[in-house]
Design goal:
heterotetramer, A mainly alpha (609), B mainly alpha (476), C mainly alpha (106), D mainly alpha (169), C: 106 residues, mainly alpha, 3 helices, D: 169 residues, 3 domains, 8 helices, 78% helix, disordered C terminus
Chain lengths: 609, 476, 106, 169
């Protein structure tokens, strides 16, 4: 038994154990889950930065069951394993009273195993296997949200499934035009290569949740249980999606700075940043607001990696790990608020900061981090992305900067509306969350500070090895941001956001409505309207088309009748009367159709004679 | 081994009908179960010397010219598994003892016909066994003698007879070109006179006859009616193997070993396959009846098989053969579930169902597995076969077909998700509160088939090496 | 093929095609199930004759005859089953009208 | 191997009989028409050196099948004379096209030039021993025939005999 099989087998085995345990054995179930996730985390840390390769013959013609551990995969695995453990700990309290607790743990463990498998896979086909199986656990997990969640689960399934299909085609093209399904082919981007890149990219960024594949995430935030959202769109899928995007860009293709795919990625990134943050700004629900940020932040990573310059890639990857941390933590605070206060509607919340001090503190730290306030981790990663973006074009930098402004504004609004202000009458006696929920939040918040203050640790040991010495050319990106002026500008923008908030609060007298003047701005208000009605949701647009098709299809048999009753009447005058008499006999229609096609096929075959 | 699969059931039925009634009725089920199980086992374990030697002697005594190669093996497994499922379902749905006895008799003759189809090496004997299978299935569809069943049976009968006439005409014309009707002789003679007007004409007629038998669009008219109107166990048999053995397998076999993969034939097959995939899927989207939707889905899946076989490459044929197997299993599974629904809810109208997964957990769960396999979601078996087909299409440069084939599996997912929502999720309609899970026979069959689907997906490397790779030797 | 054989084949082929058309037309135009089966019979008759003709042209009438015997046996059973189905339909509908066989559609 | 005038006459007769079968007003007449067609075909088969097949054709197709049809028809309710008269006008309209189509097909066939470009795989010595062929070469088909006959028996048991009959008797 090889060490590398353990990260896949341990969670699967414990998932089976949990599945076999009776529903009432809660304590045992929690213990098994926590132990195995902890073991998984420990294993991931033990394996950290090792280089191991295992390979078993599998199907033939190059399809091998081959796993490879190296610095990047060990980094992603360790991060995912840590999140898995913390979320399991959190859920043991959060889902305690819910009847889906058992299924959730099973799904969680299987998802961890699949993620480990996907990250460790050393060829694309094996990765595809794990990647697609994650789709099923995702579907199942969202379904846990009850009857209403079916719609959302289907939506997520269709969106991710469709983009995965693109990815499959991409893999097929990649494999057959470069000759192998290995990750390291350095395929040129010309011709089919470009197509393959775009298709693979669609799969990667759809998994990460970038626009335009985002629209299920806000729905899931409402319908699915919170730990699911914190875990999948919050942390694991981002890690996996960005991991794969990085592998595509760095290892699989010869992507050079200035190539068109670079611009494509940067444009997708910028648009994602801007649109999602604009939507986040006007949300009136704690979780929904966070979910739009989960989309928006992806934009920074895609933008950073899309620059294809070392500083941007380092920034993108650093942002990936930072974002998983603070976004996960933010969702967890949302869960704590939901559990303790009974709602996540911002209009009903308020003043709970004093009643849930620890939660509030964690929120504060992570909100500052996501807004990019120094010295928290978000600041440093964003600065690196800015630096990279500016190198490629001021417009991308500007987009990122504006996104940052709105991020800060919306978190000011969120914090103000939820934690400060006057407490609601019905929520006078809100208590602090139980310790199982607090521990993960506090740990992650502390890590946010650590990664900010001592950013040498993640950058030097986690991220820079991914790029390798060749790409870095001796640069080191830890310490204070390389470009001092950009840092100043960022701080000024943040101050602007703060002033904007104060202006809004003065004008409307409420933290919740602090950004309403943006919402009512001339052009923006129409966009918001369209979005609110679902016009901009690509899924809805697609569904509309599908509807048309299915109507067309249900008419097919009538079209056959038409062929028989109308078409033949006009063409074959001799048969007119007879066919009218025959119009009700259905099997005759079938015979006529069959014979007509037979004649066509025979003629087609004879054509070549 | 081959003639055992024909002669033992044949003498078995004759013997059963001579036994006293009470004994025969009790023995019939076990005899049939034993025959089908033996068929599966013989097809899987086909190597050991003991069997081969003893059976060769048996064969030579009756001088039946059968031969079993790897494609036949796959089909024999399908026939055994699906017939067994049909038998078990029949045991729990056909209550009258006398009726059950008749049913089992005809079921056995049907399976003799199908086993014969996959083992013969002579085009006229192929026709004989096709007729055996088809005639049995007419009786089976009309078995309950309700008006819908009779209507379905009559439509199938007429269309099938037309197909038979086309095929016989073709055989008669081919006799002008060949001294006898063995596959090998015909193959040589046709290869010799390729491009001849009359021979090409005959080839076209034969292929079209098989298209009718296989229910491909636009020859499909009879298929939804027959599948929908047939009694539950018969639907399993029909959808699982009958039309596949009669139409699809035969088409693959005849084209591969007699007519040869010429470009016009390949193009025809791929085009018809594509049309079937699309029309079947779109038509399935608009259905309100569970069984009818499954029938249209069958047309669509069969389209994949023909599309794969039409590539004429090893990968395409391997994918087609594996999809044939997968389709037999998951469509059999879905029809077993439809039998459970019909038995418990009393209808197969989806608008009168809903929320059944709470009441019928096994049925719900297994149908999700079948649905995912049909839509080609990894790691289930359906994914691998579709992958092979798509890769094969890609290799020969039919990028558009490959792309449409992939997109059509989204359609598959769409109609199955719709079906799931209508039947298994949502709110339980009034009047179904007291609903219980179907009987053990049905749930066990469904679970067993689900296990096969999952197992075949996980053990794909094994299947690829032991069942699909040998296909290379027959075709190339 | 020699001219004389070709002449025989053409002549028989000509009339066989005509019977084929008759049978097909009968299936398509009739309103009676029994008559549809009769149409089917005509189709099979045409094919039977064709098999015999090809056998005769090849000097291989033995093979053709053995084929025809098999075809005839199958034909009888087909007619029996078709007649049975028609009879049962008659019991339900009280007539043999093909126009009433359109319950299943869509 | 020339086609003789007798052959041509028989073929024309066969076509006319087939035409009459299709166009006959009552089902019984149609059945008789089918029997006549079959009988003419029997003669043709006999003339083509195939006596055994001719015997089968005569006994089974002309005899047995006609009996099956007649008995099936007698089990169903025959139309009254009045109904037949009512229907005959409509029938007339439907079937009047058949002769026209036949003529059209015939003319089309006459103009169709099929290339005569292959050699027959003709046996050197005519094989006439059908029994030998059936038992030694085509015995698989014989097995098939046995199974088919059994299916026919099952079909009769299933489709012709219903519970009502048994209760009645």
């Amino acid at each position: 038994m090889n060490m590398l099989l353990l990260p896949i087998l341990i969670p699967i085995a414990s998932a089976i154990i949990v599945l076999l345990l009776p529903k009432s054995a809660k304590l045992l179930r929690d213990t098994v889950t926590l132990l195995s996730t902890f073991a998984n985390a420990l294993l991931a840390i033990m394996l950290f930065n090792k280089e191991i390769l295992v390979s078993y013959p599998w199907v033939g013609f190059g399809f091998e069951f081959s796993l490879r551990l190296y610095n990047f995969s060990s980094f992603i695995m360790a991060a995912a394993a840590s999140f898995g453990f913390l979320i399991a700990l959190y859920s043991s309290a959060f889902t305690a009273a819910k009847n889906y607790s058992k299924s959730f743990f099973v799904y969680l463990l299987i998802s961890l195993a699949l993620l480990n498998g996907a990250v460790l896979s050393n060829n694309l086909l094996l990765m595809l296997f794990f990647w697609e199986a994650l789709l099923i656990t995702q579907f199942g997990m969202i379904m846990l949200g009850g009857r209403l969640a079916f719609r959302t689960a289907t939506k997520a399934f269709v969106i991710i499934g469709a983009s995965d299909l693109c990815m499959m085609v991409g893999i097929a093209i990649y494999g057959f035009s470069s000759g192998s399904f290995a990750f390291s082919n350095n395929m040129p981007l010309a011709g089919l290569g470009g197509l393959a890149f775009v298709l693979l990219m669609i799969g990667a960024i759809a998994k990460a949740g970038s626009m335009p594949f985002h629209s299920w995430i806000p729905d899931a935030a409402i319908d699915a249980p919170l730990p699911v959202v914190a875990m999948l769109p919050g942390a694991l899928e981002k890690l996996l999606g960005i991991y794969f995007l990085t592998r595509i860009s760095l290892d699989m293709f010869r992507a050079e700075t200035g190539s068109w795919v670079s611009y494509l990625l940067m444009i997708v990134g910028s648009i994602t940043i801007l649109f999602a943050v604009m939507m986040a700004l006007v949300q009136k629900d704690y979780k929904r607001l966070l979910s739009y940020h989960a989309i928006s932040q992806i934009g920074y990573m895609v933008l950073g990696i899309g620059t294809f310059v070392p500083v941007g890639i380092v920034g993108g990857l650093f942002h990936m790990i930072n974002n998983s941390m603070y976004k996960c933590c933010l969702f967890l605070t949302g869960g704590a608020v939901e559990k303790q206060a009974g709602t996540t509607n911002l209009e009903k919340l308020g003043g709970i900061g004093s009643k849930m001090p620890v939660t509030f503190a964690c929120f504060l730290v992570t909100a500052l981090a996501i807004s990019g306030v120094p010295p928290f981790n978000g600041f440093f990663s964003k600065e690196l992305v800015y630096d990279g973006a500016l190198e490629r074009g001021w417009i991308f930098y500007l987009a990122a900067l504006v996104g940052s402004f709105f991020t800060a504004a919306s978190f000011l609004k969120l914090g103000h509306a939820a934690y400060l202000g006057k407490a609601d009458k019905d929520r006078k006696d809100v208590k602090e969350a139980p310790y199982q929920m607090l521990i993960p939040m506090v740990l992650i918040a502390l890590a946010c500070i650590l990664f900010g203050v001592y950013n040498k640790l993640p950058i030097k040991f986690l991220i820079q090895p991914v790029l390798g010495v060749d790409r870095l050319r001796g640069h080191n990106y830890w310490g204070f941001p390389p470009n001092f002026i950009l840092a100043i500008i960022s701080v000024v923008v943040l101050a602007g956001a703060f002033l904007n908030h104060i202006y809004g609060v003065k004008k409307t007298g409420s933290g919740l409505k602090a950004v309403d003047h943006i919402y009512h701005a001339p052009v923006l208000s129409e966009i918001y309207d369209a979005q609110a009605k679902g016009y901009l949701d690509p899924y809805n647009i697609g569904l509309g088309f599908l509807n048309i098709f299915s109507i067309a299809a249900s008419w097919f048999d009538k079209a056959v009748d038409w062929f028989y009753n109308v078409f033949s009447v006009k063409t074959a005058a001799l048969l007119t009367n007879a066919s009218r008499r025959l119009q009700n006999g259905n099997y005759k229609t079938y015979i006529i159709l069959s014979m007509a096609t037979t004649v066509l096929i025979v003629l087609f075959l004879l054509r070549s004679v | 081994m081959s003639s055992v699969l024909i002669l033992v059931p044949l003498f078995g039925i004759i013997g059963l009908n001579m036994l006293p009634r009470n004994v025969a009725r009790r023995a019939a089920f076990w005899f049939a179960a034993a025959v089908f199980t033996a068929e599966i086992l013989l097809a899987i374990v086909h190597q050991p010397a003991f069997w081969t030697e003893a059976l060769v002697r048996f064969d030579s005594f009756f001088r039946l010219k059968f031969s079993v190669d790897s494609l036949s093996r796959i089909m024999l497994i399908c026939i055994g598994v699906v017939s067994l499922s049909s038998l078990v379902v029949a045991k729990s749905t056909v209550s009258d003892e006398k009726e059950a006895f008749k049913f089992i008799n005809i079921l056995i003759t049907a399976s003799i016909g199908m086993s014969g189809i996959v083992m013969v090496k002579d085009i006229f004997s192929l026709y004989v066994f096709l007729e055996i299978a088809a005639l049995s299935s007419f009786i089976l569809i009309a078995f309950n003698k309700d008006i819908n069943g009779l209507e379905g049976a009559f439509k199938y009968l007429i269309l099938s007879a037309v197909a038979t006439v086309l095929m016989l005409t073709s055989i008669a014309i081919l006799l002008l070109d060949s001294p006898d009707t063995a596959f090998s002789t015909l193959h040589n003679e046709i290869a010799h006179s390729r491009g001849n007007f009359i021979v090409t004409f005959a080839i076209g007629l034969f292929i079209c006859g098989l298209f009718i038998k296989g229910g491909l669009v636009p020859f499909h008219g009879w298929l939804p009616d027959a599948y929908m109107a047939a009694p539950a166990p018969v639907s399993i048999l029909l959808a699982g193997v009958m039309t596949k053995a009669c139409g699809i397998y035969t088409l693959m076999r005849i084209v591969a070993s007699v007519f040869g993969f010429t470009d016009p034939i390949k193009n025809t097959m791929m085009l018809i396959g594509m049309i079937s995939i699309l029309v079947g899927a779109f038509a399935a989207l608009g259905q309100t009846n569970f069984k009818r939707m499954l029938a249209y889905s069958s047309i669509s899946q069969v389209g994949y098989i023909i599309l794969g076989a039409g590539t004429g490459t090893f990968l395409g044929l391997a994918g087609a053969a594996f999809h044939l197997f997968n389709h037999a299993i998951f469509k059999g599974l879905l029809f077993v579930n439809s039998a459970a629904l019909e038995e418990k809810v009393g209808t197969s109208d989806m608008s009168r169902m809903g929320g059944l997964s709470e009441r019928m957990p096994v049925t719900g769960a297994t149908s999700v597995i079948a649905m995912l396999s049909a839509s080609g979601v990894p790691p289930l078996a359906g994914f691998w076969s579709k992958l092979l087909i798509v890769i094969a299409l890609w290799q020969i440069g039919h990028y558009a077909y490959a792309a449409i084939a992939i997109l059509a599996s989204v359609l598959t997912l769409a109609y199955f998700l719709y079906m799931q929502r209508q039947v298994f999720f949502g709110k339980l309609p009034p009047g179904l509160e007291g609903l219980r899970e179907a009987g053990n026979g049905l749930t066990l069959t469904a679970s067993a088939l689900a296990v096969i689907t999952v197992g075949a997906g996980l053990a794909f490397p094994y299947i690829y090496n032991h069942f699909l790779l040998p296909l290379k030797e027959i075709f190339f | 093929m020699e001219a004389s054989s070709w002449g025989l084949f053409s002549a028989f082929g000509f009339f066989i095609t005509l019977i084929f058309v008759c049978g097909l037309y009968c299936i398509l135009a009739t309103r009676s199930l029994i008559r549809a089966i009769i149409g089917l019979e005509l189709l099979i008759k045409a094919v039977t004759l064709l098999v015999i003709v090809t056998g005769y042209l090849n000097n291989n009438t033995a093979l053709a005859q053995s084929f025809v015997i098999t075809i005839i046996v199958i034909e009888v059973v087909l007619v029996v089953i078709a007649g049975g189905v028609a009879l049962q339909i008659f019991r339900h509908n009280d007539d043999l009208d093909t126009r009433r066989l359109t319950n299943l559609r869509g | 191997m020339n086609v003789t005038n007798t052959d041509m006459l028989l073929l024309v007769l066969m076509t006319i009989a087939a035409l009459w079968t299709v166009m006959a007003r009552s089902l019984l007449k149609a059945t008789i028409g089918l029997a006549i067609t079959s009988a003419v075909i029997t003669i043709l088969i006999f003339r083509l050196n195939s006596p055994l097949a001719a015997v089968f054709e005569l006994s089974v197709c002309t005899g047995l099948i006609t009996v099956i049809f007649v008995s099936t028809i007698s089990l169903t309710k025959p139309l009254t004379h009045k109904e037949i008269l009512e229907m005959s006008k409509a029938r007339h309209k439907r079937y009047i096209y058949l002769p026209i189509i036949l003529v059209a097909t015939g003319i089309a066939l006459l103009f169709l030039k099929i290339p005569n470009d292959f050699t027959l795989p003709r046996l050197a010595t005519p094989a006439t021993n059908v029994r030998n062929v059936m038992w030694n070469i085509r015995h698989l088909d014989l097995f098939g025939q046995i199974i088919i006959m059994m299916i026919g028996a099952f079909g009769v048991v299933t489709l012709f005999i219903t519970k009502d009959d048994k209760d009645g008797s």
